[in-house]
Specification:
With about 325 residues, this protein is of the alpha/beta class. It is built from ten helices and eight strands.
Length: about 325
């Protein structure tokens, strides 16, 4: 046995020597890349600065006060990141209806732009939309291009920390209520990248916009319908603030739309420990929610004559829900 181990060791040493001699530049580059990644991982400082209800309310109220102050005061606004689900040219549900192909990745952009219009009509808000139907917002296109390795290192550091907390029993991971479609590796890292950017740029609220689907219905409508809001599970630092805002958005949407009848979503607001969009591995500081506004094959979306009006009404209801949250918080603090 010792003979075989020794022989194997000698073969490995000879192979490494041959590689170093034959491909010196490539070997140096490989070790340099490993060193860079190790340095990046070591340089990541895992910090948690979750937005509280008071933080966000202060941003809202400071803006209103500053607008009427005699002495000029720097205006603070509630910073909202709207993320139309999936990538500009791929991903998301598709439904071939009698009216033609309907793509989730296009619907979500229209709804996001409608919501942006409502929010920007109010001086309390500053809005960033992550993408349109053809490309990423240049902010994110540049961020993905220039900071990709930093995003990978950042995600790895947070995941390692949270895994350690699970291992030592300081947090528990609840059962996932609804299984989700897995994103591509690039899409996963882009989602983490947007969370990282949001943390670095003082985003208060992050809303991911989606439309639901369920496999197996083919070119006919499926049996499920309705909306649901996904929020961070309670072990995450941004959970309480997100839940408080989501409650008011949910109440507004529920006045006009049916809650999802899919088991797991029928509670309306779903705690989720795995969705990257809402802060998986305790990564998000902003109040972060993902809204599945309806199923993609529902009549309001299927019919081109009603589609845009339906999307606009969903955007208005979301805006009104945010307004309800701030109105309620203001009255409680008076």
């Amino acid at each position: 046995m010792r003979y075989y181990v020794a022989t194997l060791f000698i073969i490995v040493i000879l192979c490494i020597s041959w590689l170093v001699y034959t491909y010196p530049d490539q070997i140096r580059m490989t070790f340099s890349m490993i060193g860079n990644i190790s340095s990046q991982l070591a340089a990541v400082i895992v910090s948690h600065n979750p937005k509280t209800i008071a933080d966000i309310q202060t941003d809202y109220n400071t803006n209103a006060t500053a607008a009427s102050a005699v002495t000029p005061v720097p205006q603070t606004k509630v910073r909202i990141l709207l993320v139309p689900g999936h990538q500009p040219d791929s991903g998301g549900a598709e439904y071939m209806s009698p009216y033609g192909d309907i793509k989730e990745r296009d619907l979500v952009v229209e709804l996001a732009q409608d919501l942006q219009t409502f929010l920007e009509g109010d001086s309390h808000y500053q809005v960033i939309v992550a993408r349109d139907t053809t490309s990423w917002n240049p902010i994110f296109a540049d961020y993905f291009k220039n900071d990709w390795n930093d995003i990978i290192a950042w995600e790895s550091a947070y995941k390692k920390q949270f895994s350690s907390m699970v291992a030592d029993g300081s947090v528990t991971t609840p059962k996932v209520a609804v299984n989700h479609v897995t994103s591509s590796s690039e899409g996963v890292m882009q989602l983490y990248g947007m969370t990282k950017w949001a943390n670095e740029n003082n985003i208060d609220i992050e809303i991911h916009i989606h439309f639901n689907d369920y496999p197996g219905h083919g070119d006919k409508p499926g049996k499920y319908s309705g909306f649901a809001i996904y929020v961070p599970a309670t072990q995450y630092d941004n959970s309480a603030t997100t839940r408080a805002i989501a409650d008011d958005v949910f109440k507004e949407l529920a006045q006009h739309n049916s809650v999802s009848n899919l088991r797991g979503e029928s509670v309306g607001i779903v705690d989720d420990p795995e969705l990257i969009a809402v802060g998986a591995n305790n990564t998000a500081d902003a109040a972060s929610m993902l809204i599945e506004y309806s199923y993609i094959y529902e009549p309001q979306l299927d019919n081109p004559a009603t589609r845009s009006a339906f999307l606009n009404s969903l955007a208005l209801q979301t805006y009104n829900g945010l307004q309800d949250f701030f109105a309620a918080e203001s009255s409680e603090n008076q």
